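Annotated sample (chain length 248).
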Amino acid sequence: MKTVMIVGGTKGVGNEILKSCLKKGYNVSFCDRNPDDGNEIIQSSQAENKLYFHKVDLTSIDEIENFFIQTIKRFKRIDALVLYAGITPISSIVETEEDVFDSVFNVNLKSPFFLIKHVLKSMMEFKTGSIIFFGSAHMDFGMKNRAAYALTKSTLFTLSTHIAHHYAEFGIRSNYVVMGWTNTEGEIELRESEGMSEEELKNKAAKILPMGRMLNRFDPIPAVMHLISDESAMTTGSLIRITAGQYI
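Output written by the structure step:
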């Protein structure tokens, strides 16, 4: 019985990963800032014994460690870690203030680093594990107004390959999924704040993306589930682009 730990899990692609894991019979530990969302998912799942929700502020290293501790207490081990949650401030280099820079680095880079610190120790003990990073097409150099975000995503790729190289001897693999332009709740809310409807957003994306449409929350799921499964036992250090042909 696998236990999958998801940073995120209440919305968008993260929630679809959670549902897919439950269908496989996996245990799932997931987190969010809002306990109401987590509790609602558990109550509606008909699988309460397979779910653990942890309210967490990703800027708090102590809370990150407690998320790990409580997951181990509940399920005894972690077979896969999915690093989905992140923030995307809109700011170019010349517009970025220190608080914006610190917030995106704390959530997108510092929190996964210190969670991995603890998860790796557990995986090393069991001599197996899969770590799945969620990247972005911004990782190569990014749009002008996503400067700090682009830096965090490219650095996460370095972290993924670092783990793949140095912890393979423990049976631990690490892979990086680049997710392209997706109609997540956050993306829709952002565009609506700019006066653009979801339909207008999809039409705009269709004209820009080579494959003619933006991603939906289901598109990355097969790749993620493969990387969680034993079928990917010899896959590590890889980068898979699920971007509809988008290379920023």
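Annotation: Residues 98-126 form the longest helix (29 residues).
Annotation: The mean pLDDT is 94.
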